[in-house]
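Standup notes
- HV: blocked on the assembly model, inputs below
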Amino acid sequence: MLTPVLSDNWDQIRSWQLASYQRQGGYDALRTALRMQPADVVTAVKDSGLRGRGGAGFPTGMKWSFIPQDNPKPKYLVVNADESEPGTCKDIPLMLASPHTLVEGVVIASYAIRASVAFIYVRGEVLHVIRRLQQAVEEAKAAGFIGQNILGSGYDLDVVVHAGAGAYICGEETALLDSLEGRRGQPRLRPPFPAVAGLYGCPTVINNVESIASVPAIIKNGADWFSSMGTEKSKGMTLYSLSGHVARPGQYEAPLGITLRQLLDLAGGVREGHELKFWTPGGSSTPLLTADHLDVPLDYEGVGSVGSMLGTKALQIFDETTCVVRAVLRWTEFYKHESCGKCTPCREGTWWLVQILERLEHGKGTEEDLDTLLDLCENILGRSFCALGDGATSPITSSIQYFKDEYLAHFENGGCPFDPMASTVFATAGASA
Amino acid sequence: MAENHATATDVPVPYSTGDSKITDTTIAEMREIAARYPVARSALLPMLHLVQSVEGRVTPEGIEACADVLGLTGAEVSAVATFYTMYKRRPVGAYHVGVCTNTLCAVMGGDLIFERLKDHLDVGNDETTEDGKITLEHIECNAACDYAPVMMVNWEFFDDMTPESATQLVDDLREGTEVKSPRGATICTWKEAERVLAGFPDGRADEGPTGGKATLAGLRLARERNWTAPAGRQGSAPALDGVPGPRPEDQPGRESQAVHTDDTRKED
């Protein structure tokens, strides 16, 4: 049922240190990779069926193969460790517990695309994760896994840990590149795609932490091993993150295609005495689902077939004590705050969305406001510069689809009919603010 | 209360206080950061973290120093500094206390915790207590949702918070009691934390556990039920027996070292 691979060493003593990682066979995959031709490493990752774990699900090996090797410019690998999508909490615990899994993947991936420098762009708001990444890179340098002539292979690589400074938009890969170049983090027009003109205008691969961290296991155990897990088009194991009103929230590593019903069962179910109301399959930018979707396979196709997206597999669970209007308003405030301001539909649209939702939550809206909201969403979705604007519309349109009556109840009631205390974790403990 | 507080955000901040602490050492460290990158301008974000570690905020002198080192104008540096939430134009207290009020944490209790702390500290959002100890800010999702409601002190995790544990935490910080993050190190000052973000390690990486209870929830269940990934090409998957390295059953005391289970702070 569960298949710990990425999380397998997390219960080892000082699992973040090189010595512990190597006791578990760490860096064996790097030795294997360095004995292969770079193109064969790309092929192995292609054959495994690994798809991007940052949300979009693009095949990782194919992304690597887009790097034009006849281009004389330097090539770069950039790891997107800017984990900020609301609900998403998988890369941070991975890097805290086992930064070397990522670092080993970085060296193998860099070798495969023949990068000279790799960057780990980690959000700035996670001090201890940054400490462990810095230490892991130093340990790997001292051991000869990073630097000149790595393990006698003739391959040279430098790795830089780079801390961001608080901007959700930098999780968007081209905004991340601008930020890494020392600019405001605003997305770039594509094409050209980063594979052709990325960091400093050079060929660049940008991958999510979990995608890169999956590479050593693929090289070590083989593409067939990886693709023996998962479903037809969604291969391998992945980290599902359960949070919210669930008995045992946390990280559950399972093959792609497991269902929320199965995961909830493993996690002790929805908190005692309550029932599932709505959930996100992969962060707040993926349309909400309900108890009707408990048996949907949580793979790229399965979640897509019910009008949502697998996203980051951030399963945020909300029970019947939660006001969906309040939840959606708060997410919308987040998108408004994080909109970079580059394009008008997102910059202005998220501002307007917040104003209308505030009215609705406080019982001062009308049914016409719901139509205005949907109209606004239509004008943002597909018309904004990047996926941030699209994501901002997801919770709104899906919540109106499934919970229109609850929106109506707010103005019938003249305000929010929910008690915010009832939804808290300390509601039952008798604590109060 | 909060609205009339001396540090309220509507009070203008002086452009320069004339007591900049940027020295030749700072400039040398800025050059050291720039040298890490193929193109020097990439160093700007870490350099601004360094400015905050020296000045306690982003000062005009800090902006000019970055501009000089990178061959940019002050306006170009300011444009970047004002884009990112972590860069502060007002002096930050010794401890930056963040309360996550994004949807999941808010619903789980973050909103009530934030309200309680505003009252308790008599400050509003993004304001500093009069003793200069604590700057309170509501923050967005910090990637620890499985520990909601979450707080951050100088960007270290504080998990599964309640209004009571939150007020105890800020009281401890103000009184100078040693405070440890349940998934991190002993809390240093905000300026010291900013120095690490600039890329100057403080040697604390080995403090704290591998992860908390939620991080290990799935792994523990898999161990209990003997669930593993399929065997790999080399005859055994990483999770199978026969792989060298300590396993839970042959490592007495592993739990106490690897996993932080008793959060004593919360029982205070």
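- HV (later): unblocked. The radius of gyration of chain A is 22 Å. Chain A touches chain B through 112 residues (CB under 8 Å).
- Next: hand off to the docking folks.
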